[in-house]
Amino acid sequence: MWIRSGHYIIGALTLILFIISGQYMGLVYQGFSNPELYGHNEAVRFLFRANHIYLLLPALLNLLLGSYLTLAPERGRRIAQYIGSGLLLLSTVLLLAAFIIEPPQASPERPWTFYGLSALLGGALLHLRFPKKE
After folding, report:
1. What is the full DSSP assignment across 12-62?
2. Quick check: 102 pLDDT over 90?
């Protein structure tokens, strides 16, 4: 099933990006190559850390869906799953953009993170299955 494969591949790639972004932070923001990038502004450092962890969330959710997803037989439920999958894939892109764009601005306004986490929440909720009433 192509949708499972897609989630699995995107999840694996995002997990690799999570590891690479951690290495990037370790080299660039821990003083090895350019400590003046964040100077003494701990807000920038903490924003990078928070957005770094936010990359792990869609990676794990996509890996789980890639491992266990079965499409519902009902048409409406299956459409909801397709929309949920699209939102989860979109959230991955938005949260990656948030990691790149938002921390250097050191602003409390973080629209990329907000929309990325909102898409992730919506996508996860659309994949929920409730037990049938007997």
Report:
1. HHHHHHHHHHHHHHHHHTTTSS-GGGTTT-HHHHHHHHHHHHHHHHHHHHH
2. no
